[in-house]
Amino acid sequence: MDVLSNGAVTTVSNFVFPNDLHVHWSMMIVLYPYITGIVAGAFIVSSLYHVFNIKALKPVSRFSLLFALAFLACATLPLLVHLGHPERSMNMMITPSPSSAMAGFGYIYALYGIVLVLEILFIYRPKLVQLQAGSAGWMQKIYTLLSFGSDNVTPESLALDKKIIKFLAAIGIPMACLLHGYVGFIFGGVKANPTWSTPLMPVIFLLSACVSGISGIILLYILTKKYRRESLNLECIKTCFNYLAGFFIIDFTFEMLEVFSHSYLRSGYHHMVEGLLNGPLYISFWVAQVFMFSVVPLFLFGWLCLTRVKDRLYILGTMVTSGLLLLQVLYMRWNVVIGGQLMSKSARGYTEFHPQWFHKEGIITAIILMSLPFIVLFFLGKIFPFWLEESE
Amino acid sequence: MGENSQTLDKERRDFIKKVLKGTIGGSLLLVIPAGLRSGIEVPVQIPGIRDQEYDLNKKRFAFVVDITSCIGCGSCCVADKREYKVPDYHYRTWVERYLKDFDDKIYVDSPNGGLDGYQEPRKDLDKEIRDTFFVPKLCNMCNDPPCVQVCPVGATFRSPDGFVLVDEKHCVGCAYCIQACPYSVRFLNPVTHSADKCTWCYHRVRKGLLPACVNVCPTGARKFGDVNDKESEVSKILSGPGVFTVLRKAMGTSPSLHYMGARREVI
Question: Which of B91, B152, B180 sits opposite A18 (nearest CB)?
Answer without folding.
Answer: B91
